[in-house]
Amino acid sequence: MKEQTPMGMNRTGMQMSPLDANAMQAAPASMTPATPGDDSALAQMRGSYISESDPIGSVPLPGTVKGAMTTGVALLTGDQPQLLLDKLGERLAFERTGTRLYDALITKFETMQDTSTSMTLADLRKIRQDEARHFAIVAEAIQSLGGDPTSQTPCADLVGVESMGLMQVVTDPRTTVAQSLHAILVAEMTDNVGWELLIALAEDQNQSALITDFSVALDEERMHLQQVQSWFQEATLGESISNGAMVDDIADANPSQLH
Ligand SMILES: [Fe+2]
Ligand SMILES: [Fe+2]
Asked: CB within 10 Å: which end of the chain, N or C, has fewer?
């Protein structure tokens, strides 16, 4: 079982073949085979898709009468109730992913019996519970606005795509605790910014009833970020010291593709 990233037979760099590397660098530019064309055709094609495409989905209209009335009033005053519902949908999706990320990290941490950090199982279970509770807070907020927490909003769809890589890293059986913590760190940084924005939006839309719960969640996210950042540093520096390698070398030592 891997606890650290090993030094090994990584063949991805040109240093692996000094003769060929020298020959390639010595070759005059005129002899270097060039692929005809440039990336302008690619940009042009992307441009035509962009100008012709529809947006990614829509925010569903609140289904309840109370919700419909609330939305109607907010729309009349020039507010954008769909923006708040879209961002609530985003947070709902991301908190769900956060819960699953911690489930995966807990399994990795327990299986590897990792002692490279001050992180404990109790710490991880506590954060996992926080994420699940944040999910519930958002679901309740959506319902209080007459929205449907089971609907997928456009921004919820986007964060689902964005966070796929994070889940892949933490659930990949080959990744270390340090590598998994880096993916968790990305999630926690996004969590922090997400709640800050949601609080600003709720204030903007005069939804002060939501702000108390959201502020508690933001405080917890700030704590998560601090903890994860320090565990990530401990785990990474621990790897570095036990390998006799520089921290910068860790990412290069095992570049096999994650999939
Ligand atoms: Fe959270
Ligand atoms: Fe968090």
From this structure: C
Six-digit token string for 130:
């926080």
What is the fold, at CATH topology level, of the domain defined by 80-253? Ferritin (1.20.1260)
DSSP H helices, 77-120, are 81-112
Domain ranges of the chain: 80-253
- Are 142 and 148 in contact, with CB atoms under 8 Å apart? yes
Could you tell me the distance, in angstroms and rounded to a whole number, from the CA of residue 99 to the centre of ligand 2?
Answer: 9
Distance 254 CA to ligand 2 centre (A): 28
- pLDDT tens, position by position, 92-135: 999 999 999 999 999 999 999 989 899 999 999 999 999 999 99
Cα-to-centroid distance, 176 and ligand 1 (Å): 23
State if pTM tops 0.90: no
Token pair listed for 224: 């998560």
Ligand nearest to the CA of 94: 1
- CA–centroid distance, 112 to ligand 2, in Å, is 23
Q: Which among 132, 143, 76, 111 has a CA at the least distance from the CA of 151?
A: 143
Burial of 47 (0-12, 13-18, 19+ CB in 10 A): exposed
- How far apart are the CA of 165 and the centre of ligand 1, in A? 18
